[in-house]
């Protein structure tokens, strides 16, 4: 049960307790005064650190970590220098002509245009062309969307498909989709007297 601080007897009791605790604290301080003053004084010798030494100390701690990061970076860097293709647009007579954006199409792919429609034609040509990655079609990275996978074959980091792709989710969800009978609890009709009138 909490104390009622409005009663004069409890107020007097608490005031006496506060005074008693204050006297105990002052007594402890007076008993340990010399020890407290001795411990409070600085007895360390001046080590002669300058402001530059203090500023440089945190940097020196992280230097081994930084060298380790450089080593990891060197291992994961591209093994081959990325080559965007030959210098194009300058003829032998040193005249400047407009440079083409796309690499030449292989004869095997361009011959699809001249075949009959079941195996050839425009649609089959475009399907064969879209299967190539942008590095094989363009000299330079033409769009910002190509920045993501540009020259990924030269990278030392391994590329793998995602571990949990959409295919697995569709396989797990497929048996549950499609037309199915209603659940049993839908069959239990609750008669509404208002609707029957």
UniProtKB/TrEMBL annotation:
InterPro entries: SPMIP1_C. It holds the Pfam family SPMIP1. Residues 87-183 form the Sperm microtubule inner protein 1 C-terminal domain. This is Sperm microtubule inner protein 1 C-terminal domain-containing protein.
């Amino acid at each position: 049960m909490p104390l009622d601080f409005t009663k004069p007897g409890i107020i007097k009791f608490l005031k006496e307790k506060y005074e008693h605790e204050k006297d105990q604290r002052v007594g402890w301080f007076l008993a340990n005064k010399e020890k407290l003053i001795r411990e409070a004084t600085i007895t360390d010798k001046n080590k002669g650190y300058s402001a530059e030494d203090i500023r440089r100390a945190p940097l020196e701690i992280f230097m081994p970590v930084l060298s380790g990061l450089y080593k990891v970076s060197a291992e994961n860097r591209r093994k081959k220098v990325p080559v965007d293709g030959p210098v194009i647009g300058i003829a032998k007579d040193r005249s400047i002509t407009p440079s083409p954006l796309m690499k030449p199409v292989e004869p095997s792919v361009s011959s699809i245009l001249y075949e009959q429609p079941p195996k050839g034609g425009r649609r089959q040509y475009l399907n064969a062309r879209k299967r190539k990655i942008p590095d094989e079609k363009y000299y330079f990275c033409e769009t910002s969307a190509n920045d993501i996978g540009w020259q990924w074959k030269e990278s030392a980091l391994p590329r793998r498909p995602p571990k949990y792709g959409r295919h697995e989710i569709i396989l797990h969800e497929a048996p549950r989709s499609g037309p199915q009978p209603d659940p049993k609890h839908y069959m239990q009709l609750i008669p509404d007297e208002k609707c029957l009138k």
